[in-house]
Amino acid sequence: MVATAVVVVATLAVGGWFGYSKIKGNQRPAGNPAAYVPKPTAMAATAAGDILTNVLDAYANLKSLTVNASAIMVMDMSKVTLADVNPGAAGKFGGRQADLPKGMTNTADVSIKLMRPDLYRIESKNIMQMSVRGRTTMATNTTAAWSSGATNYVLMQAAAGRGRRFNQYYTVPDKKMAYAMGGSQGVLIPSLFFNDQGNVSEFMSNLGQTEDEAVDGQDCYTLTGSVMGQKLKLWVSKTSFLILRSEITLGGEVNTAQLQKAMRENTNAVPGMSKAQMNRMMRRQASIMPKISGTMTDTYDYVDTNQAFSADDFNYSVPPGVRLTAFAMPPGMMR
């Protein structure tokens, strides 16, 4: 349950790129002050809008895109209690359960390959370190999302505790869900390439141009704004207008009323989950967000455009013995 909650929190933080397009606000968060984004000047806001338009045009004009990324997520979860994560079980353990992680670091190598109209393959191999009971535990996990035709697939291989492994191979309804199930890595770039992010100006508040910075020697504009109450910073190449780095600062307060409104307007229902169940789950995650602090940073180390690919280039080799099923949310996530 804890691992699932962490994935949902990570997805919620970047969810504005593909799902929650009506959330706005400019209120100082009750949680991590570093996640707060003040209102930019009119000049900075106008400049950011112009740069963002060029970014969207740059991705829209690509025939294919290959990106390799290095990603790191660092989270402080010491303020999260069992009652936050699973209210029904809180009384059994009295306050904070010993097995709840106090901190987490996740490093990943991500490979993204995209081609129009709808072919993609996203692979992530990551190492997760958690501080539990004063000890640091480590697990190596693999996720993949791909489609070489009409069907969208997701593979998840993760540590399940006590030396066990979670191995699952899913079919999912659409590509947005497929690459969102991998967490933070691999969401932003395909969303931009396939124009899945909706009207960016509708869900980003306080977007402004900030100081220029370089990424691996390449001059970049930087844009800083707020998505779901979390601070988002983008580094945009001055020559290609492609994004070379993104960083989310976690811990901002999520407006529950806005979140509920967004979920009512969301037409991409999760299989096996009703709107009411989804709203309850998201309200729970929104209450956890201000208690978490940390950052998720993706740096795109290799970017190549307009390569020639065939459909076979988007297939993924599934390990033998992993069973294919249709995806549905686990019952524990619906309460």
In short:
This protein is an alpha+beta fold and 335 residues long.
Report on the structure:
The protein has 335 residues and is α+β, with helices and mostly antiparallel strands. The chain has a single domain (2-330), classed as Lipoprotein localisation LolA/LolB/LppX (outer membrane lipoprotein receptor (LolB), chain A, Clam). Helix content is 24%, strand content 37%. A 12-stranded mixed sheet has the order 7-8-9-10-11-1-2-3-4-5-6-12. Helix 1 packs across helix 9 and helix 8 packs antiparallel against helix 9 (275-288). The relative contact order is 0.23.
| Class from secondary-structure proportions | alpha+beta
> What is the ordering of alpha helices and beta strands?
HHEHHEEEEEHHHEEEEHHEE
Tell me the name of the CATH homologous superfamily: Lipoprotein localisation LolA/LolB/LppX
Helix count, DSSP H or I runs of 4 or more residues: 9
Rough outline: globular
Low-confidence sequence ranges? 1-27, 265-269, 331-335
Spatial order of the strands in the main sheet? 7-8-9-10-11-1-2-3-4-5-6-12
Cα Rg = 19 Å
What is the CATH third-level topology name? Answer: outer membrane lipoprotein receptor (LolB), chain A
β-strand amount:
35-45%
Please identify the top-level CATH class.
Mainly Beta
Please name the CATH architecture.
Clam
Helix content: 10-25%
Kindly report the average pLDDT value.
Answer: 79
Number of domain units: 1
Specify the biggest β-sheet: 12 strands, mixed
